[in-house]
User: What shape does this take?
Amino acid sequence: MIRAQIIIPNGTAPGNWQEGGEELIERWKQDKTAFIWVDLEGVQEEHEHEFLLNMECHPLAIEDLQRFRHPPKTENFANHTLMLYREITEFNSDLTLEQMSLALFAGDRILISCHEKPSTSVNQYWTSARSENLLVSPGLLAARVMRCSVTYYLDAMLKFEGRLADLEDAIQEKPNDTVMRELISLQSRLRKLKRIFNYHDRLVHNLRLEIPQRLIDEEGDIEHALTDLYERCERLHGLCTMYYEICGDLINGYMSLSSHKLSNNMRDLTIISLLLMPPTLIAGIYGMNFENMPELHWHYGYYAVMTGMALLAAGSWLWAWRKWMQ
Assistant: This one.
């Protein structure tokens, strides 16, 4: 699907703005004062490649767009600036998510957006770009679309903070293998998210360092828009890094608790073994069936041996208790 909306700032209403399809591109080319936003959704690669070439997009930029799982990037060309990033299409509470590549070509009087599936951020500004007077500023409009995507990421990550707090309480109150498995799984997903958010952080940082003059000359304050976008990307990357480290700390805490519990169990077993060793030694001695053992025929021998066993066990327990209390 290819849709477009065009605005002619100096035109007369209602003809100064129009929404339609590819037919609006010819009108945009004829009127040098017109601005246009063209959105390509789910267009086949061959058709997309041909269309972008006709719009004078650089072949290398088109190649980056159509490359499978290309990392987010920004690059300035003679006629346009490419902003390629990952947009969220689904984000669940367990950090499982679906993403897609969204490319924005910001040129002179034109913005082209390309994506495989419906984009929430594109659809939001598709209906509000005219009212917010963003069509006359392709670079600013692209920054706002990216800002909308980053906001969705931020909202999802902030909701995850509550789940992380619940896991921390579970580790302290009742640690078990189920919590451990979930923490390891979340840490793995956070590692992937951290890599993606790092790409976005660098993307906006590089764009701020090398803002093309054509974007600066547009209406609106592109510098402040990019600064705001960068701060959000930086915060998102910082949150993801913090959550990743918290998961690591909780995993280490669980391992420490497990090790401490195992140490206590070994201590209890050692004490039990220590209490049983003297009686076992005595029983072993008198269990040897030698004929020359005078105590075997002693009338009070059984009572004396049992008393000795009890005293040795009590003495061993007292010694172990004093050592433990130290």
User: Anything to note?
Assistant: The mean pLDDT is 80. The chain has two domains: 2-257, 264-325. The first strand starts at residue 2 and ends at 7. Residues 222-286 form the longest helix (65 residues).
